[in-house]
Amino acid sequence: MAEVEVVACADEACDEESLAIYNAVWPWDAISMDEVRSWRSQVLEWADFLAPGGGSAAVALTPWHPEIGRVHLTVLPERRGRGVGSALYREVSTWLRQRGIQEVSAVVPEDDPAGIAFAERRGFHEHTRSERLVLDLIGLEPPAIAPPEGIEIVTWADRPELIRGIYDVAREALPDIPGDEDEIVEPFEGWLAHDMQGSGDRPEATFVALAGEEVVGYAKFSLTKAQPTTAHHDLTGVKRDWRRKGIAGALKRAQVAWAKEHDYERLVTTPELRNEPSRRMNQRLGYRPAPGKVIMRGPLALP
After folding, report:
1. Does residue 2 carry a pLDDT above 70?
2. Cα separation of 301 and 7, whole Å?
């Protein structure tokens, strides 16, 4: 087998080829260079590697899990079984080892048994699994938002001063997501820049639940020019003392109404399988299952 060439991307042409491979392998999660640049601004360090014409790998160290390397390794179907994935894995591992990192977190499509087997042969195990739920908006009559008594739903664009209250919700909600119990919530300024001001974040598409003047929940979309008719749900969070009162459902219905009004054709959400309340709420709203993703963790490649 011929040795596979791998280069570290250092210019926009390489970045764009790498992204094109990613989008071809992950059409459900396709993004634009705007999101790539936004992602890079959020992480501590990053690198992109390209096997020209065959595969790509993006690796990053994040403020949320600084001890684990986050990797997206993608190989075009017609180039699999030729050593491309192994070569990229070795390059990513070398990059991480130089930074003192010993563990990798990688995403694999749930309906890609060959990709899962590739990871398992290298010592990876399943850490979490998320299903993908899709709501078709074409022909859908949006449900009434109908928040619980005493709750008002507004947008962050309408009430920008509520951002500190939104942060308080995030501090409670993020660690309660199954699989993210060890995630570090950044201090306010970092969280604001990285979670709320990325290229896919829009204040008018961020919905806030108020009880009087207290922010008790919020829900936001992640949007991309690469998928102009699809809106992806980001976080839907409610303070612990206000859960099981119908607030999350009202926030989600507000999102459905906004997306329908702005000519989106589908909504996509990816709740972790153990997040049963979220799964039941989405099913009640008519979301239908599609292949999800598996988060796997494992070691670096041997030097």
Report:
1. no
2. 17
